[in-house]
Amino acid sequence: MEHQITNEHQINNVEVMFPEKYNGYEEAGIITNFSPMDMPINVFSDALNRREANSNLLLQWIKDNFVRGVDFGSIHIAGKGSKDSLYKSGAEKICGLMSLIARYPNIHLYEEAVIKGQDIKVIILKCELHTHQGFIVGEGVGARRVEQDYGDINSSLKLASKSALIDSVLRLGLSNSFTQDLEDMFKNNDNGNSHKAKQQEPPVQKPETPATNCSKSNGNGNKRITSATYNHLMETAKSKGLIYADVKRMALERFAVMPEHLREEEANYFISEIKTS
């Protein structure tokens, strides 16, 4: 019924042999270059309706199970929030729900380069989403400059792989959902009660300028966080019952950098956000 193809570079490495009759239609079994447009009308219509129903069901599942600030949320820079973005946790939930396995076919090239002591300036990883049968149903790409992490290859690899994973999940057909449909589901809910239990963060508001010394950037907003601001950040987090791991996760999700690598402007906003949470 099926046999493995030896070419390891082929996207779908399983060839499926259709029977002579497919749902009662002999012609379906002899199509060499299969296209959905060649399907019988009723089969094509049923397939469209099934996909639409499944898509709506997936969006409803996301609405019921995703946690704002953990699985999705806005990335804030200088007090301005983006539209809702998918986080790594949310991407992993979707992969688990759909039984998809994320693989990075070119990550070994960077592992070999590190072992050989080669200078790596940019990391570009490809992510493939595989079914348990070996089919690739989604692909994504993530990139990271090593200098952004001050030469920390491990951090750069993790962040590039995270970006590639999220990109591959969005390419499954969710990119539009996270810029429109999902945003509408959470912000324009009729009674506003269906997602309160799942929402951990308050609605995004532009914060007032904190009346603390660390909020004054003195022209230093685009430079790396100072030790005084970093200490203030950690003290503020501690007062809210947060530990370093929490601050690290929040910084990576919101600004894609470690807390120690935040810029002054980002750190000041981060502090005010924690205070109001």
Automatic annotation (TrEMBL):
Biased segments, Polar residues type: 210-225
User: Which parts of this chain are annotated as the region Disordered?
Assistant: 183-225
Name this protein carries in UniProt: Uncharacterized protein
Top-rank taxon of the source lineage equals Bacteria
Organism lineage string: Bacteria, Pseudomonadati, Thermodesulfobacteriota, Desulfobacteria, Desulfobacterales
